[in-house]
Structure prediction request, 301 residues.
Amino acid sequence: MTLPDGLCAFPLTPCSPDGQVDETGLHRLVTRLVEARVDSIGLLGSTGIYMYLSPQARRRALEVGLAAAGTVPVVAGVGALRTDEAVRHAQDAKAIGAAAGLLSAVSYTALSEDEVFEHVSTVARESRLPIVLYDNPGATHFHFTPALVHRLAQVPGIVAIKNPGFERAALEQHLAEQRGYIPEGFSIGYSGDWFCTEAMIAGADVWYSVLAGVFPDICRRIVTAARAGDAVEARRLDAELAPLWALFRRSGSLRAIYVMAEALDICRAEPPRPLLPLPDAQRQAVIETMQNIFPSGYLPD
Prediction:
């Protein structure tokens, strides 16, 4: 497979209140990303509410999303509480055509590093789907330590990592250190959109982006500038998005993205319960911020 590289955009999985996939809405979201020429698409990530969907809904979302993605590589979320379920999700994703699986250490009971090693290794081995490690301690309360990443990076089929973001100085140090203990060619990426311009300037391989799921163009322009060595332009574009980053930090990116997708008339959906939509005042703040940043129909230049 082609390793994750550049901009990986994560769209919502719009659903009805009872968890049925809004196929038209999902198709529109993915088509928008294809037209923006993103490097890859992350279906069923945290923004894609994978943990709130039935196995049947997850499979259908992949079928619809992959059909819309065409030749754009898709990284599919395959995480689950049980190892055997994660294996089945990964096998499904491979059979439908995903390029890789995104796998976090999801658990109700706290996991040890040995348990996570066995979990991830088993999924990679039994599914034969290339695996991207998903270090998401804010949601899973488990952090992939350098020692664990080093162990897992030696396992055949584990090819990349999606790291949480850090402030600039810490990020540069983290990236340099991680490069030092993983094999050459192992793909290193970051999430937490407000950190990722600096990550790309520092030389990260991938920006795993929530915002790109609805506004891919400006995110792609940031990646292009950063990879061309034009840090000034990348930071200028990132500064335009600062009000959105502030909203993401305050309200959470997931709930804000639902508002954005509806304001853009791409789809209408609400977060799965028990998650609640943003209150009216915060919702209006998201819309007004979009209008201010993208005054011409919410679209970048």
Remarks:
- The chain has a mean pLDDT of 95.
- The longest strand covers residues 158-163.
- The chain is about 50% helix and 10% strand.
